[in-house]
């Protein structure tokens, strides 16, 4: 790419690196401004041999300083020569105000702990005092984790328009794209098919693209829909490319209101109408097929689906489309896979599906890069592959970009996020972790290097003996061969010239449900088993080997998916996440172990610790909330009284923290309403879904419970318009603790009202705040029809609440 580097350049580059190495930040800036062209643009110069470069990189990482953009042995150049322009840049965000406020909050939290210890003997309520100390220690610890994670804010910017100036399209590495679906009802086929269409139509040479659809539902409907979709894709993809359509998922492109613009050419208008009709036909076909069982006659194409049960059937692999000539203008390879399932073998949910996809594609196309997507995550930006290539080509050192993650964003987000599940508040955490070892793997929208997924360590050339490959990858000869190829060669060299159809038998073998026995799939290679958030666990393992990761945030957003739109499905998802994240702490890949034994950075480990402790923290939140009511009911107290000077400590934390979060929200243009919703749902979810997750994981550790991956509903719920964003409840026990704590708080408040002189002011205020947070539940208790919390739930919660109140009375 950077061919015309002269010796003088090289020398200069060394000088700079030496300079960075010796003098660091401020002086360097001066030097750059003085010596280099005024347009101080830097390019990533690839001189791995340069020892100064290496040292300087390490230094920059350690300090996470502003000279971050020099991390790759940088060199200042003139903007005129675009060959030398960087393909991506790290942008460091200034963060001083936030840091100051965070430190203030931290010092208040620490003061509170000190207050508890110093005044321990001077008050008469030892029991609440100790509990409070415990909870507050936990909150302080959490705050330290959050602060450490958010401390260095940065993001990256990619320049796709520069890519083709420095890299020839023929040098692009091939990419295997994986889409997973598991249930044709919860995940309507039309949504999955739109994801497929958007991917087939991206701006990328199609002979370097292969698409694999994994169907854990073993549904003939999905297979049928895929066949029909590929027929449509033959006209849709050329249309998108010819007119440079921006949104290439037809269901988002053809909204009922959309029409071509008047000043579009006549030809375009005609083709547009034709395309809209064709998509309409496809939609109707799939809709029609979904309403009745698909006949799977023994001698039809659907024979493989004859009499299958989704959890007990042989492997089905079908090649729907094959680009035989390897032409960049044909459709990519499209392959349908439904892996073997049997009740005797654990299938490991999505992680299992991903490993089958990895192996099947390893045998069939063996592309060095893999992109994986949930079935609802369509490519919203047709240039996403180009953005990914910018990252790929600018990080020549694999260690620096173990995987390339695009953020999870949603197209159907309800206004102001009433259920608090759209992850908008992750903005600062995501930017913070980018400033450490790199973003978490989020399960979808991520480009992985096959080599890294195969368990390689940074910079290690194939150390494994070829004879040992079967112990790692299993006894498929084809897979061993292809894995050896990946592990030994440099990434972009591998060209996918294979024809999938010649490897069907080998592929069926590696998709079998007993294939993994005695191999390292799920423990050392592939997607990791042992947690329902296999994504975070897998990313953690990669970071643990010393890789960094990068986040790429193009505009418009790269991929968009469905966020749950009902309260119950949002709850299911939150519960599954909290469970899976907590499970991670109890695996042999827990962040603490990986820092001690592996190469996980210390602060990265703190970030993982924050993430995996959601459920534990919720337990402490629940205790704290119960403590409030306990104190009011029994007339004791654990917060300082208003007339005590120490009152400013909790008061200060409460006010400053809430204002701080509100300020953060306003800075990224989120509404006041959104802030309130997220802060209130933070409390509600902690005391419902997360508490439930905590209990489930504890039970699992004692072998008393099983954890399953419950798939979330995609697409619009069937309900009518006016339920949108409103709380509709089912009989699931998840919300029982939430309702119980609300009832307890109400009881406490009422009993406190009658004895205002006796009870603490702080406790009363907090109780009122709690009730405001649970306002929706309060409406649910008195609501009507589907907006009412089921009576059985209220009874259960009532019994719990009564029990608690009686306990309080007895202990007081
Ligand atoms: O047995 C299974 C279960 C699920 N899936 C697929 O897994 C994906 C994610 O499932 P979903 O119900 O959408 O879960 P979410 O909570 O929305 O997913 C987020 O959280 C998951 C667990 O952390 C990650 O795997 C996902 O990538 C991430 O988007 C979907 O494509 C499913 O089809 C399977 O293939 N097989
Ligand atoms: Mn999802």
UniProtKB/TrEMBL annotation:
<keyword id="KW-0961">Cell wall biogenesis/degradation</keyword>
<feature type="transmembrane region" description="Helical">
    <location>
        <begin position="684"/>
        <end position="709"/>
    </location>
</feature>
<feature type="active site">
    <location>
        <position position="535"/>
    </location>
</feature>
<feature type="active site">
    <location>
        <position position="216"/>
    </location>
</feature>
<dbReference type="InterPro" id="IPR029044">
    <property type="entry name" value="Nucleotide-diphossugar_trans"/>
</dbReference>
<feature type="binding site">
    <location>
        <position position="187"/>
    </location>
    <ligand>
        <name>UDP-alpha-D-glucose</name>
    </ligand>
</feature>
<feature type="transmembrane region" description="Helical">
    <location>
        <begin position="734"/>
        <end position="752"/>
    </location>
</feature>
<feature type="transmembrane region" description="Helical">
    <location>
        <begin position="645"/>
        <end position="663"/>
    </location>
</feature>
<dbReference type="GO" id="GO:0016760">
    <property type="term" value="F:cellulose synthase (UDP-forming) activity"/>
</dbReference>
<dbReference type="GO" id="GO:0071555">
    <property type="term" value="P:cell wall organization"/>
</dbReference>
<keyword id="KW-1133">Transmembrane helix</keyword>
<dbReference type="GO" id="GO:0012505">
    <property type="term" value="C:endomembrane system"/>
</dbReference>
<keyword id="KW-0328">Glycosyltransferase</keyword>
<feature type="transmembrane region" description="Helical">
    <location>
        <begin position="619"/>
        <end position="639"/>
    </location>
</feature>
<feature type="transmembrane region" description="Helical">
    <location>
        <begin position="759"/>
        <end position="777"/>
    </location>
</feature>
<feature type="binding site">
    <location>
        <position position="350"/>
    </location>
    <ligand>
        <name>Mn(2+)</name>
    </ligand>
</feature>
<dbReference type="GO" id="GO:0030244">
    <property type="term" value="P:cellulose biosynthetic process"/>
</dbReference>
<dbReference type="GO" id="GO:0016020">
    <property type="term" value="C:membrane"/>
</dbReference>
<feature type="binding site">
    <location>
        <position position="216"/>
    </location>
    <ligand>
        <name>UDP-alpha-D-glucose</name>
    </ligand>
</feature>
<keyword id="KW-0808">Transferase</keyword>
<keyword id="KW-0812">Transmembrane</keyword>
<feature type="transmembrane region" description="Helical">
    <location>
        <begin position="100"/>
        <end position="120"/>
    </location>
</feature>
<feature type="transmembrane region" description="Helical">
    <location>
        <begin position="126"/>
        <end position="146"/>
    </location>
</feature>
<keyword id="KW-0472">Membrane</keyword>
<dbReference type="Pfam" id="PF03552">
    <property type="entry name" value="Cellulose_synt"/>
</dbReference>
<protein>
    <recommendedName>
        <fullName>Cellulose synthase-like protein H1</fullName>
    </recommendedName>
</protein>
<feature type="binding site">
    <location>
        <position position="374"/>
    </location>
    <ligand>
        <name>Mn(2+)</name>
    </ligand>
</feature>
<dbReference type="InterPro" id="IPR005150">
    <property type="entry name" value="Cellulose_synth"/>
</dbReference>
